Each structure stands twice: as structure tokens, then as C-alpha cells.
Amino acid sequence: MPTYYASARQRIAPRRSVALFALLAIAMVVVSYIVIVLLAAACVYLPLLAFTSVERPPAQLGFLVLGGIVVGATILWSLVPRREKFDAPGLLLEPSAHPKLFAELNAIAGSLNEPIPREVYLVGQVNAFVADRGGIMGIGSRRVMGIGLPLLSSLTVSEMRAVLAHEFAHYYSGDTRMGPWVYKTQSAMIRAFRNIGSLGEIGRIAALQFINMVAAFILKWYFIFFLRVINFVSRKKEYRADELACLVAGAEPLAQGLRKIHGASMAWGPYWNSEVVPVLNQGCKPAIADGFSRFMAAPQIEVQVTKGIEREIAEGKTEPYDTHPPLRDRIAAIEKLREEPADKDGEMAISLLEQPETTELQFLELMNPKLARNSLRQVGWDEIGQTVTIPSWKTAVGEYAPMMNGITAGSLPEVVKKLPQMGSKIRDPRGMLLTPQQRTQRAGQLVGLAFGLALLERGWELEAQPGSFFLAKGRERINPPELIEELVEGKISPENWVKMCEELGIADLELTFTAGSGSSDGRGTHTKRDN
Questions:
Q1: What is 187-203 written as a DSSP string?
Q2: What is the pLDDT of residue 374?
Q3: Is the Cα torsion angle 380, 382, 387, 390 positive or negative in sign?
Q4: Is 48 left (phi over 0), alpha (psi -120 to 50) or beta?
Q5: 454 close to 513: Cβ distance less than 8 angstroms
Q6: pLDDT (tens digit, 9 = 90+) per residue, 260-276?
Q7: Is 74 exposed, middle or buried (CB count within 10 Å of its CB: 0-12, 13-18, 19+)?
Q8: Which among 111, 290, 492, 518 is placed 20 to 30 Å from 373, CA to CA?
Q9: Predicted TM-score (pTM) above 0.90
Q10: pLDDT digits (tens, 9 = 90+) for 94-136
């Protein structure tokens, strides 16, 4: 074990508050079961008491007793633990296949004197987590860990080390041992609430509905109280996990890692949907981690992410049901610790995986069972434009090429007025029935693609990188599909459009397209047609 990790173990001191918060969580679990059992008993006992206290009880009281028994039995049935199947959250990583990663995990585990998780998964979330799975109420369970692929492409090794140390701190503090009890208790209350709610839907007896309504009201407000207390404890545990992570890996890497995680969580969804999915749909597999790093580094994305992080730090507030403290409060607490790492490793954390692209492919195939093995072709981001984007444009436009006859770039303001008529000629995709609005939208998209192909034939070049997409010629930069969308929405006036086309020298550029026209690199010569 590295000297720094060994010294971290020596500096870790127990905190009485941690034990108190753990006791509070245990008390809430115990009290919750007592409250639910008492509620079930009350549903039976109170109507029965009313029934037996009257010499000649009316039939309504009999129905009340019957309703109380039904509601009480339903609540008790909801307390019975359900066996839950553990579904692997991602790709199982083997120590022999990724020695660098497991060397880090072993060193961190040793610094806290904790055993390494039995199973470590690569997951598609901007997150890392630890848990105890299996067994009964946590007894006989096994440790599992999830490491998000987005984190490996966002954080440096030092920052990833701090994040993983934070997760191991949850093991050290016993949070994962308590977790199954809290989860089962919460699940039992949710089941009880749902089950008595279903009784209200099927029961037509007024007495049953009355008892059901009272029981649901009490259970609802107790559940709210339970969540507030448990999440308060959870937030306190996060502070302790941050403290231990700083002792193991340093304060600065953890603070920077938390900032980057918040930024990556904002960017991962747009990156996946706008950059990765279109490439996968073309039967190709890009370098996912490398692409996310490029996406985050794109100037316009970097600005948005930085503003989002700054906004969260400035405006973030603690809500009663938050499981984690706000980013601002966590960073403020971390900065007070001033723990510095012995050494800083600025290499990207993806380097901890051996052959990252092969691992990504295995991950995709696991997450998409219908995907045929080895059916995706590996494509680098520098090749995407020529091998994926341009061919897909040609395929989309080729089917409707006759609609583009006679259209020039300068005439597009008039053309967009006819998009509804053009859209009516677009066929429905398999299994879908397009609305008129969707047809108009698709017609606009086709015009944008045809415009882009015409520019490529005129000598413009496509620059397609994650977070950066445009056609360039000299110093000019334009995004054809985006420009057409702005023209349709009225963000660009017809006059300004014509002026722009004249300045670029493309007013007479025809959108005529024939299958196979242009060279494979998009630099074919445009030939003007005689109509």
C-alpha cells in the first residue's frame, strides 16, 4: 500500500456524531414498524370496541368492523418482506482485465481497512455507488460497487481516487449495512399506502372507505416525517464520507471532482442523445469516453457547464427530501479540511481501464441484448463526418430528391412556406403515423440536409466533433440544418437570409441531389442544371 494511504488510516478518528446518526436511523426503522403495526391494530380494535360497547349494534358498525379487519390485514400483509432480484447494473469488471483500476481500489480499501467489493460494475450513469446486495435484510449480503463511465472520461485519476474513497467511506461508516433496513422499511410503507389505496378503489362500502381514508392519511404524514429524518441522516453521512475521502485522497481532488460530476451530469444526456445515439443508429460505435471529453471541452458546452456549476454553487439550497447536501455546502466543508494529497495524477481516469474502447463495446452489447455481437463498427470521432454523417444525409435526402428540383439557397424563404405540402409527400416510418406538424418538421429537416449536401458539393467542408458541428469554407462557419430551423421559426428574416446567401456567394446554389452525386469526401464539383 502506498505510504500516503497508510498514513491516512492513522489519521482517521472516530466521531461520536456518526454513531448518534446511525442510532437515529435504526430508531426510525424500529419505530416505523411499531407505528405501522399499531395502525393496523387500531383499524381493527377501534371499530370492534365501538361494536361491543353498544348493546344492539346497528349493521353499519358491523360493516365498520369488517372494513377495519380488511384494512388492518392489508397493512400487515404489506410489511412482509419481498424477495428482490438483483439485476446487474452494468458490465462486470474483472481484476485480471483491469489491473490499474483494481490496484487503486485495493489501496483505497486498505487505507480504510475495508474489504474490496466482491463485484465492481461499469455503469452508464454520472455516478459512483456502493451497496450491499442479497441476503435477508442485509444479513448474508455481498458488497457491490458501480463506477460510471461518464466519470472515467470526466475526472483525472486523482479526482476519481477521491470519489472512490468517498464511496468506500460509506462502507467504513456502516452506511451500506444500514441501507437495506431503511430501504425495506421505506418499501413496506409505500406498499401499505398503495395497497390500502387500491382498497379505496374497489371498496363500495362507506365504512371501509372511511377507515381506508383515515389510515392512508396517518400513513402518508408519518411517511413524510420518516423521509425527512432519514434524509437528514443521509446528508450528515455524506459530510462524513467527504471528510474520510479528503483524509485518503486530499481535499482539492474531491472538491474538483464534485464540481466536475455536477457539470458532467448536465452534459451527459445531451451528449448521449445528440452525439452517440445517431452514430449507433448507423451501425457504428464511437469512442464514448473520448467523445465525452471532447464534448465537455467544446467552447460553447464548456461555457454552459461552467455557468451551471456556478449557478448551483450560488443558488443551491438544502431541501428536506434531498439525500445529499447542496454542492456549495459540501465544497465549503471540504475546503475547511485542507488535506493535501501526497501526489497528484492528472491523467484522465479512463486510463485505469485496459482497452477502453473494447470495454465500451462490451458494455453496449450487455445493455442492449438485441444488439448482435460484434455488429457495431468502430469509428473514430475524426472519421464520423465522412463515414457516418454525410452518408446518412445522402440516404435521407435521396428518397425525396425530386422535391428539391428547382430549389436554390436564395429561394429558401419561399420554400419554407410550402413545407406542409412537401411534408404531405413524406411516408410514415414503420410503426408510426406522423401528424401534419411532424411531417412539416421532417420536410424542414430534409431541406436542411439537402442544403448541407449542396454546400459540400460546392467545396465546403464538414467539421463534425462532439459539441462542435458546422460546415466551413475559409473563415465562414455555418450549420445548415440549424439555419433552416431558424428560418422556419422566423429567427432569420427572409431579407437577412437573402443577404447572407449573397455575401456567401451561394444565392444560386441548387439543392438538386442525385444518388451517388459528389465524392465520398464531400468535395465533388457542383454542376448547375438546365431546367
A1: HHHHHHHHHHHHHHHH-
A2: 79
A3: positive
A4: alpha
A5: yes
A6: 999 999 999 999 999 99
A7: buried
A8: 290
A9: no
A10: 999 999 999 999 999 998 889 999 999 999 999 999 998 876 6
CA 121 – CA 209 distance, rounded (Å): 47
Three-state secondary structure call for residue 479: coil
Q: How far apart are CA 187 and CA 84, in angstroms?
A: 11
What are the residues whose beta carbons fall under 8 Å from the beta carbon of 187, sequence distance 6 or more?
82
When computed from its CA atoms, the radius of gyration of the chain, rounded to whole angstroms, is 31
Q: What are phi and psi of 476, to 5 degrees?
A: -80, 140
Q: Of 360, 530, 372, 390, give the one whose Cα is nearest residue 457.
A: 390
Secondary structure string (H, E, C) spanning 272-288: HHHHHHHHHHCCEECCH
In the predicted structure, residue 356 carries a pLDDT above the cut 50:
yes
Go through the chain and tell me how many residues it has: 531
Full DSSP string of 287-353: -HHHHHHHHHHSHHHHHHHHHHHHHHHHH----TT-SS--HHHHHHHHHHH----SS---SBGGGGS
Closest CA to 276 of 381, 123, 396, 148: 381
Under DSSP, the state recorded for 528 is P
Instruction: Evaluate if residue 329 carries a pLDDT over 90.
Output: yes
- Segment 210-243, tens digit of pLDDT: 777 888 899 999 999 999 999 999 999 999 999 9
Place of cell 447536501: 325
CA angle, 345 then 351 then 355, to 5° = 170
Q: Contact 130/167 with Cβ under 8 angstroms? A: yes
448, 450, 456, 457 alpha-carbon torsion, rounded to 10°: -150
Q: How far is 288 from 465, CA to CA, in rounded Å?
A: 12
Partnered with residue 133 across adjacent β-strands are 142
Residues 6+ apart with CB under 8 A from 347: 156, 157
| Among 353, 133, 352, 163, CA closest to 248 | 163
Query: What span, in angstroms and rounded, lies between the C-alpha atoms of 341 and 251?
Result: 8
Band the pLDDT of 203: cuts 50, 70, 90: low
- Cell numbers of 144, please? 457491490
Whether 264 contacts 296, CB under 8 Å: yes
> E strand or H helix at 461, and its extent?
strand 461-465
pLDDT at 527 over 60: no
